[in-house]
Amino acid sequence: MVEKAETLASINMTKYGIDTVLFFDEANTSDALGLIKEVMCDRRINGRQIVNNVKFIAACNPYRKHTNLMINKLESAGLGFFVKASETQQKLGKIPLRQLVYRVLDLPPSMRPLVYDFGQLNFNTEKDYIFQIVKNRCLYIPQVTEKSDVIQAVTDILVWSQNHMREKNDECSFVSLRDVERAMIVFSYFCQKKDIFINKVAEKAEKEQKHPVDDITRSLILAVSVCFHARLTNRAVFEEGVAKQFKAPLTLAGRDQFCNEIRWCQDILLDNMKLGENIARNAALRENIFMMVICIELRIPLFLVGKPGSSKSLAKSIVSTSMLGRASEKELMKEMKAVQMFSYQCSQLSTPESVIEVFEVAKSFQTEEQDVGSYVSVVVLDEVGLAEDSPNLPLKALHPLLEDGTEGADSSLQIVSREQRVAFIGISNWALDPAKMNRGVMVTRGDPDETELELSA
């Protein structure tokens, strides 16, 4: 990449008189950190002087250790079952890498004076960003375009949701503007798919004789449930708090109605799935299927995190057999895309090449289809948490694939449109590095309560 940048710098400076910058993303997660230090501090590559005045910038993930509570939770989930944390070779000083929030390596001493700590956005700046994202997205939603009070109301709910997540002490606290962007994509989807989902939920609400809710409120409830609500293990405080944020012109009668709207939509999807006779329609299955269908439709990467037995693989197989596009038995499923799943079993021996290969196969299959608009390939990484413990760092390959739909450096300038990407589902027994999780939506499945166990039985 340095040699490529040198060639490009020569052309840029001679022809256009502009600088060339080579950007090393997540530099401190790479084994080539020593070489990056040589490039940035000494301006040498393999001993020779770097020519043509290329500029260098590196981004580094912060050094943060998990809380003891979080470490115990990860260890009990089975992370690194094959070797004790104290005996693992991957360490930062004396701290095992798996006990760090981000899996990072120690920066060479000569690079440390160059570090600038960006910190994070302050509250007011982030609020301005969120307002702008909401406003831009609402330009494409006819029902909302001219209503400035609705745009402000949506902004306030998303700002509150972001702040609530940040106050958590576990993996749910890692939120960014990507979450706001995804929430608006889902909101826009439900506003446009009014005939498929929103009207059917309205019919259910009428039968239950509950307070009337307008379509925009209903779409926003479902968007918040996908991008924020689903990632929480204990949801009562969030439900209570977010319901209070739905102020005029939005209409909502409190926490119970917020939960009912989500459950009704999940039930509608479940009613249209092929379920075997002995499959219990419990909360875990309902939510897993709902999240998979929405994320596949919108090509939003999805991470399903939960202990064995939380209906993760079952939901995957039901979605696979039910989403057949126009060949589906149910009318609702005919409106959805046909799905082809490509599974890959992760392990400690997984490599970046093997992960990229699955995406390549899925992508080529999708391209060959005559009617791309009604078909989607889905890459499913099973036990994705095991790959995180591999010395080959295979999950680094996911970053550009999930972010831009490309394989990284060589193709990073041609970002693939969302409609042309393959969908992604990562199934894990424990939470992953936030740098990966934040590139998609996360569902956390906690232990079922007594009511759920009775229903399943």
From TrEMBL:
The lineage of its organism: Eukaryota, Metazoa, Porifera, Demospongiae, Heteroscleromorpha. It comes from Amphimedon queenslandica (Sponge). InterPro entries: P-loop_NTPase (IPR027417), RNF213 (IPR031248). This is Uncharacterized protein. One of its GO terms (molecular function) is ATP hydrolysis activity.
